[in-house]
Amino acid sequence: MNADNILQVSDMRKIIAQEMVTVDGYFAGPNGELDWFVWDDVLKNLSRDMLKSVDTLLFGRVTYDMMAAYWPTVSDEDPVIQKAMNGLPKIVFSRSLEKAEWNNTRLVREVIPEEILKMKEQRGKDMVIYGSGSLVSEFARHGLIDEYRLIVNPVVLGSGKPLFRGFKDHLKLNLLNAKTLGSGNVLLSYRPDEVR
User: Fold this and answer.
1) pLDDT in 10s for each residue of the chain, 196 residues
2) What is the model's pTM?
């Protein structure tokens, strides 16, 4: 076998979960509210940088529906972010969605770990999950997420939708970086002990 044809683990595309979370661990309010986000220019630049480093956006159905209703018609957002959100390839994982009409979106009915691993082996940039708590949990249970970037907002909701659900075992994480972003937000980057 030719050495050029061997894909090194370090050459594999990563799946990154970048999530806004509250101090008490919620990624959305009880009814999916996101009005607690502490958004500023630092986060805008972080979002731009993320979107430049990926070539695929991954969503669960609820987040996909919200994003697909927002980004194609919004007029007052950052044009770089808007162009990337509308233009980048997207995959929505859903058993209930009948069709995915947002530009450049592919509908996948279920998470099959072997298929996700094949995606990671394809050439290209990294992939990112935004929101989509159920998708993050399912990917995490299968060891498919390479990095968690949690943007902890200085907010306590008291109730809401937790980012991680349905774990029977511990998910052990190694801290890669901790960075204060301003406006009270802190970025915590973690790599799990085990990645497939």
Assistant:
1) 444 444 444 578 999 999 999 999 999 999 999 999 999 999 999 999 999 999 999 999 999 999 999 999 998 899 999 999 999 999 999 999 999 999 999 999 999 999 999 999 999 999 999 999 999 999 999 999 999 999 999 999 999 999 998 877 889 999 999 999 989 999 999 999 977 6
2) 0.91
CATH (one of 3.40.430.10, 3.30.457.10, 3.40.640.10, 2.60.40.10) for 9-126+136-185: 3.40.430.10
Q: Is 180 exposed, middle or buried (0-12, 13-18, 19+ CB in 10 A)?
A: exposed
| Helix, strand, coil % over all residues of the chain, rounded to 5 | 30, 30, 40
Question: Hey, is 115 helix, strand or coil?
Answer: helix
Domain boundaries, the chain: 9-126+136-185
**Alpha-carbon distance 187 to 47, whole Å?**
12
**What is the Cα–Cα distance from 122 to 101, expressed in whole angstroms?**
25
* CA-derived radius of gyration, the chain: 17
